[in-house]
Amino acid sequence: MPDLTVTVDDRTLEATWTDDAPETTAALESALPVAGDGIRWGDELYFDLALDAPPENAREAVPKGAIAYWPAGSKLCLFWGETPASHDGEPRAAAPVTVVALLEDASALGALEGGARVRLERSE
């Protein structure tokens, strides 16, 4: 069963927590629901979100479907494909991010044009 429901404009996606970042996951989970106006950077959407969480297993290359927190910029990011920083087709953040969850299927995000309203909440 998925842990999160992620709504991007009219698209509803499901995601599951990873085990890589327990402090960041706990901080995000306690802040839910969260929402923001996503800014698009390649095949990434990010929005402002201040969490009290240190970088955990932070990295620039992330898997497709990653939901990650960028502590230095206080942003929550969704990755589904290449960004301007990508090498060899993998999603890549501009700076190290902490991956907290994975979208089960991010393919619906491929049709986005520009930014979008993003909301994360606990799955029911």
TrEMBL record:
Gene3D superfamilies in UniProt: 2.40.100.20
Pfam families linked: Cyclophil_like
Family matches, as InterPro entries: Cyclophilin-like_dom_sf, Cyclophilin_TM1367
Positions of the Cyclophilin TM1367-like domain: 4-121
Name of the protein this chain belongs to: Cyclophilin TM1367-like domain-containing protein
